[in-house]
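To illustrate the input format used throughout this study, we show a single complete record. The first block contains the structure-token representation of the backbone; no residue identities are included at this stage. The design step must infer an amino acid for every position from geometry alone.
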């Protein structure tokens, strides 16, 4: 293509963009609204303006930048800014929805920002017309020329990459800040509402912990008493003691998620020797991976545990051939801290510490063997404490190792496949590639152990690991890191890498922002939400909490619908399962409570008048709280049976 042909093509493109913008402007002035045809005109103007500028810059690459070409570059910048801005303003990407990218409707801000596209096309058209007539640019100054300017920008980018290559902290900071902002966006969007179904219960439990301050005792959790991994409460208890438990869970998940992404970048850079860009890509992969986002949604202890697990594996892999006494102490601290964070993480630490013990024993490393053995023993006893023993009894099977439960192959196996396909997807092949090419023993052993536990319903037809999907989710920070390393190494063409990145993150984007198509990925996944959204943005829940804060002082039992009970728990400190009963109102529940108490509160969306319970002698409606969809009723009831009351 010669110069005149390129000029003619670029002018034709700029003319088309100009006419499309003129049509959009006339349409807007005549109808005072932006319809589907307006959006198509804006898209045409945007594409053709940018393409015309590209051809013009390529043609006049050796000409001065301070010339008419600068107007075209400015116009293209405005077009790009206006198009991206109007897409965001029109909420094409909305929590829970993904509207069509082309032919979408506009709100007021979207219309205003789209005017930048129109202005940009005008700025591109008139210089292009001059260039077509004159065959050259009109220069204002003789230097610098376009080539030198672009070369300066390129050198700045190369120098920046070199700068980062010697400063691991900055690489981790870039990944961490991106992950923090990405995860913090829903927190800002929903204001004071907590993100996550279980998050209100984490707040309530943290306040229980602050009132009791005993890490190794049973605490109330979702209707029962449990031995709960205490590390999250230990770390966050200072905030609860000053009355900020609610607020800290608006911030903590984003900080922890940022730390997770930073560790992913550090592992890729230090252990797998990828270049700085590859290390940053690893952090981005971890930030956008759907199962990592799932952890941050409301598995808050597991999120902290994943941070400590990656820290432990990073240190153990770096030091395993030369473990001094100071390194051994650090490994024990990291390993035990990780095991105190979550049950799944404790399992991974136990497996990897056994592997580290064998390696240290073989190489006759006294400190390595001693520290890894101490970590393994600590993890084992912590797991036994979490599960209240080392064996459990299942009536249909007999005694089983703790953590192993009866399973229905026909029900669980399809769900496992859904997790592998929708959750892990194409991350697994690249992870296997990295594990084979870079055999990092401790990371590989931990990843494989978690994956095998996660797919246990496929391996044993009658039993499986309890809550097996938590183990698949537990492997996800490792899988996302390994997958990123494999993709960076094997996909040398940057276009292929970008394509893989988009496909890899698509379920994650679906989870974070939501698609109408998101159910195609997530509807078969156990306990999988459609997006990073609150448990329920229903003011009725908070009014329930307020009611019990103001009106509850005695140990009168409270029977509450499960979705409402977590908000009751926010107002009641350290209840027992008989004091805060997670149950929909039923005759059996009322009769159970009547065997212990003479009265109770009932918090429900149901009308208990129609139940005719034999154990209720009278009731009064204390409060009718308006909620989303229906009211929340708070009843005070008296029981018929007066025996055995305490």
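Output of the design step:
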């Amino acid at each position: 293509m010669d110069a005149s042909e390129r000029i003619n093509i670029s002018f034709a493109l700029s003319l088309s963009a100009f006419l499309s913008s003129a049509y959009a402007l006339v349409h807007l002035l005549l109808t005072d609204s932006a319809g589907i045809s307006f959006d198509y005109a804006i898209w045409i103007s945007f594409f053709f303006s940018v393409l015309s500028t590209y051809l013009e810059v390529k043609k006049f690459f050796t000409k001065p930048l301070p010339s008419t070409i600068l107007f075209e570059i400015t116009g293209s910048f405005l077009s790009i800014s206006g198009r991206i801005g109007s897409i965001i303003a029109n909420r094409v990407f909305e929590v829970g929805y993904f509207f069509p990218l082309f032919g979408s409707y506009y709100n007021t801000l979207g219309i205003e920002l789209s005017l930048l596209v129109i202005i940009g096309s005008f700025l591109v058209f008139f210089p292009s017309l001059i260039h077509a007539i004159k065959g050259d640019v009109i220069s204002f100054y003789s230097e610098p020329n376009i080539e030198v300017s672009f070369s300066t920008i390129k050198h700045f980018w190369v120098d920046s990459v070199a700068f980062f290559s010697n400063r691991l902290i900055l690489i981790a900071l870039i990944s961490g800040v991106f992950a923090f902002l990405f995860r913090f966006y829903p927190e800002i969007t929903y204001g004071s509402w907590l993100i996550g179904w279980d998050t209100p219960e984490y707040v309530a439990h943290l306040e229980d912990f602050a009132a009791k301050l005993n890490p190794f005792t049973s605490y109330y959790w979702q209707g029962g008493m449990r031995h709960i991994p205490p590390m999250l409460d230990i770390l966050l208890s200072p905030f609860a003691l000053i009355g900020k438990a609610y607020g800290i869970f608006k911030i903590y998940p984003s900080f922890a998620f940022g730390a997770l992404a930073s560790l992913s970048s550090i592992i890729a850079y230090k252990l797998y020797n990828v270049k700085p860009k590859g290390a940053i890509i690893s952090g981005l992969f971890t930030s956008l991976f759907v199962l990592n986002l799932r952890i941050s949604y409301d598995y808050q202890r597991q999120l902290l545990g994943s941070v400590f697990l990656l820290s432990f594996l990073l240190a153990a892999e770096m030091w395993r051939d030369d473990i001094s006494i100071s390194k051994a102490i650090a490994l024990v601290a990291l390993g035990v801290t990780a095991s105190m964070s979550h049950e799944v993480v404790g399992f991974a630490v136990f497996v990897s510490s056994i592997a580290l013990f064998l390696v240290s024993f073989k190489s006759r490393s006294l400190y390595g063997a001693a520290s890894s053995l101490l970590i393994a023993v600590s993890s084992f006893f912590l797991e036994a404490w979490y599960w209240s023993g080392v064996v459990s009894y299942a009536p249909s099977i007999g005694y089983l190792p703790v953590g192993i439960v009866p399973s229905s192959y026909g029900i669980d196996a399809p769900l496992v496949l859904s997790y592998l396909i929708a959750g892990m997807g194409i991350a697994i092949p690249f992870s296997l590639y990295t594990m084979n090419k870079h055999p990092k023993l401790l990371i590989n052993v931990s990843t494989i152990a978690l994956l095998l536990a996660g797919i246990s319903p496929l391996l044993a037809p009658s039993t499986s690991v309890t809550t097996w999907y938590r183990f698949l989710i537990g492997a996800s920070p490792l899988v996302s890191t390994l997958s990123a390393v494999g993709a960076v190494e094997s996909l040398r063409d940057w276009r292929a890498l970008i394509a893989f990145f988009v496909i890899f993150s698509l379920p994650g984007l679906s989870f974070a922002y939501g698609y109408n198509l998101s159910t195609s990925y997530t509807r078969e996944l156990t306990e999988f939400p459609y997006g990073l959204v609150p448990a329920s943005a229903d003011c009725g829940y908070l009014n329930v909490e307020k009611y019990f804060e103001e009106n509850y002082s005695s140990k009168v039992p409270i029977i509450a619908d499960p979705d409402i009970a977590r908000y009751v728990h926010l107002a009641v400190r350290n209840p027992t399962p008989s004091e805060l009963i997670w149950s929909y109102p039923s005759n059996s529940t009322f009769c159970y409570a009547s065997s212990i108490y003479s009265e109770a509160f009932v918090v429900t969306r149901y009308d208990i008048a129609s139940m005719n319970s034999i154990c209720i002698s009278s009731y009064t409606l204390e409060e009718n709280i308006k909620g989303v969809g229906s009211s929340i009723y708070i009843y005070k009831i008296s029981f018929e049976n007066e025996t055995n009351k305490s």
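Structural context for interpreting the output: The chain has three domains: 3-163, 167-524, 539-644. Residues 3-163 form one domain.
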